[in-house]
């Protein structure tokens, strides 16, 4: 029955799964969902949230991007391991991936959706979030250390949204957090990331479309 | 202290972690709050695994240096300190850590990867959807509360459905024959349902509407380790009544009620106490 991924091209959550599958060399069928007209398969596979991504493995649906990534690491228990073997060293990536999940998307959405004081507040928060992540990265190659890992997978899709955040809110990620930009460049040298992430200009086009749709000037 | 300033680097190196090999149970210390259901999750997990630990009650209006240093990102309880490795924060991360660190002691997660993914999905649902919905009931009144109650019922229907004909059909607990991670996560929030029903007079868990969920909850609450963990009901009622008074006296508009809902959604965590001052 194989592996099928229900996804939407621009979704950073879907991209996490695509990167994980690529890192593990798993072959799968990619299904582009029209989110304005969700397929029956999607509605049946994720009846609770009706959201992508959904990984269907031998007919069994797995939902929620970080849960899917961990599932992939569990099932294809071979290199590269996205979570380290040692218990304490596993806890840190879980914490930081959860941090990325709680903070980046929500704050990023406020950056393009809001204006004035609310946008300024979101900008301040985003910079603080990125600075915290930069501190956690330190001088490591990846968040996983020498090895590309769980937190890298969780965060890297959002790097193609930085340009959109910068354009909408008026700031420079490179100026505020050069370490994060340098890390993003290193990630882009990986085949899995390079072939999954879209050009930031293309993402910005999409954000502009969203802004029109929500009536944000 | 700026909660978002970069934390000091933790000893998360292979050497430091390896130094913890064979660490005894008395090296475990839990920073918690007696009314925090997130703290209860960890206490229950530790008891189920038969692990001894030192417990330190945090005054959330005056957080200890140990808490601020070990959880600089969120400054919240629970925090598990496992000497000499370091701190683990966020209750679900802690529960996973306990399974990773003590795999031979009563696993909290299922062994099958798909079952694990399923348990994690519903834990996330509990934290993302059900918890905030219950908090919203507690923080509101009138029409807003009616809407919040309807939302809770929608969420409970989904869980009831999984018990009746879904992933957990025919099981005594979500973890199977014994309590697992999802029982802990759902259970340690669910005792608040009865408390909130009493304090707000909203009907949340109707045994006729949600017979399987209700039966599971009673079974869960009857377990020795659970009885040992959950505070006495009159203490919880007193706490909830006090908080409810404060919320109602501060909220006069639906907007304010919504803002308070975020605060009260964490009634079962420490945030409510902290941000209410």
UniProtKB/TrEMBL annotation, chain A:
GO terms for cellular component: cytoplasm. Signal peptide: none annotated. Residues 86-206 form the GST C-terminal domain. Residues 1-80 form the GST N-terminal domain. One of its GO terms (molecular function) is glutathione transferase activity. Its EC number is 2.5.1.18. It catalyses: RX + glutathione = an S-substituted glutathione + a halide anion + H(+). Pfam families: GST_C, GST_N. Keywords: Transferase. It is an enzyme of class 2 (transferase). It comes from the Eukaryota. InterPro entries: Glutathione-S-Trfase_C-like, Glutathione-S-Trfase_C_sf, Glutathione_S-Trfase, Glutathione_S-Trfase_N, GST_C, GST_C_Tau, Omega/Tau-like, Thioredoxin-like_sf. One of its GO terms (biological process) is glutathione metabolic process. CDD domains: GST_C_Tau, GST_N_Tau. Conjugation of reduced glutathione to a wide number of exogenous and endogenous hydrophobic electrophiles. Belongs to the GST superfamily. This is Probable glutathione S-transferase GSTU1. It comes from Ananas comosus (Pineapple).
UniProtKB/TrEMBL annotation, chain B:
Belongs to the GST superfamily. One of its GO terms (cellular component) is cytoplasm. It comes from the Eukaryota. It catalyses: RX + glutathione = an S-substituted glutathione + a halide anion + H(+). This is glutathione transferase. It comes from Ananas comosus. Residues 112-243 form the GST C-terminal domain. Keywords: Transferase. Its EC number is 2.5.1.18. The lineage of its organism: Eukaryota, Viridiplantae, Streptophyta, Embryophyta, Tracheophyta. The gene is LOC109708428. Pfam families: GST_C (PF00043), GST_N (PF02798). Residues 26-106 form the GST N-terminal domain. PANTHER family: GLUTATHIONE S-TRANSFERASE, GST, SUPERFAMILY, GST DOMAIN CONTAINING, GLUTATHIONE TRANSFERASE. GO terms for molecular function: glutathione transferase activity. GO terms for biological process: glutathione metabolic process; toxin catabolic process. InterPro entries: Glutathione-S-Trfase_C-like (IPR010987), Glutathione-S-Trfase_C_sf (IPR036282), Glutathione_S-Trfase (IPR040079), Glutathione_S-Trfase_N (IPR004045), GST_C (IPR004046), GST_C_Tau (IPR045074), Omega/Tau-like (IPR045073), Thioredoxin-like_sf (IPR036249).
């Amino acid at each position: 029955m194989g592996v099928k991924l229900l996804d939407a091209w621009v979704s950073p959550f879907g991209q996490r799964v695509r990167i994980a599958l690529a890192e593990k060399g798993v072959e799968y069928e990619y299904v582009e969902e029209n989110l304005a007209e969700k397929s029956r398969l999607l509605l049946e596979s994720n009846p609770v949230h009706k959201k992508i991504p959904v990984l269907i493995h031998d007919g069994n649906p797995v939902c929620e991007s970080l849960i899917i990534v961990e599932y992939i690491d569990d099932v294809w228990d071979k290199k590269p391991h996205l979570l380290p073997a040692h218990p304490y060293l596993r806890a840190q990536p879980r914490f930081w991936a959860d941090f990325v999940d709680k903070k980046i998307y929500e704050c990023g959405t406020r950056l393009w959706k809001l204006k004035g004081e609310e946008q300024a507040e979101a900008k301040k928060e985003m910079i603080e979030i990125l600075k915290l992540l930069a501190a956690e990265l330190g001088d490591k190659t990846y968040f996983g250390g020498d090895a590309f890992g769980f937190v890298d997978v969780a965060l890297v899709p959002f790097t193609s949204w930085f340009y959109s955040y910068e354009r909408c809110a008026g700031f420079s990620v490179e100026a505020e957090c050069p370490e994060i930009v340098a890390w993003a460049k290193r990630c882009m040298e990986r085949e899995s990331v390079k072939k999954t992430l879209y050009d930031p200009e293309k993402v910005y086009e999409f954000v502009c479309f969203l802004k029109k749709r929500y009536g944000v000037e | 202290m700026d909660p978002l300033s970069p934390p000091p680097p933790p000893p998360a190196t292979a050497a430091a972690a390896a130094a913890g090999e064979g660490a005894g149970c008395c090296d475990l210390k839990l920073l918690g709050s007696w009314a925090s259901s997130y703290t209860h999750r960890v206490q229950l997990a530790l008891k189920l695994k038969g692990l001894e630990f030192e417990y330190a009650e945090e005054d959330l209006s005056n957080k200890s240096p140990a808490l601020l240093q070990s959880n600089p990102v969120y400054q919240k309880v629970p925090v598990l300190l496992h000497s000499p490795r370091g701190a683990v924060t966020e209750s679900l991360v802690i529960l996973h850590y306990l399974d990773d660190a003590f795999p031979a002691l009563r696993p909290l997660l299922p062994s099958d990867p798909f079952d694990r993914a399923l348990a994690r999905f519903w834990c996330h649902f509990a934290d993302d959807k059900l918890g905030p919905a219950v908090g919203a009931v507690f923080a509101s009144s009138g029409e807003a509360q009616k809407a919040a109650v309807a939302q809770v019922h929608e969420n409970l229907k989904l869980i009831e459905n999984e018990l009746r004909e879904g992933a957990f059909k025919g099981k005594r607990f979500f973890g199977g024959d014994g309590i697992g991670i999802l029982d802990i996560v759902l259970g340690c929030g669910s005792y608040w349902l009865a408390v909130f029903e009493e304090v707000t007079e909203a009907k949340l868990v109707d045994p006729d509407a949600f017979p399987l969920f209700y039966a599971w909850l009673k079974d869960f609450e009857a377990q020795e380790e659970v009885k040992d963990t959950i505070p006495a009901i009159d203490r919880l009622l007193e706490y909830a009544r006090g908080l409810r008074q404060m919320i109602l006296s501060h909220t006069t508009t639906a907007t304010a009620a919504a803002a308070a809902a975020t605060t009260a959604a964490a009634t079962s965590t420490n945030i409510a106490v902290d941000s209410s001052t």
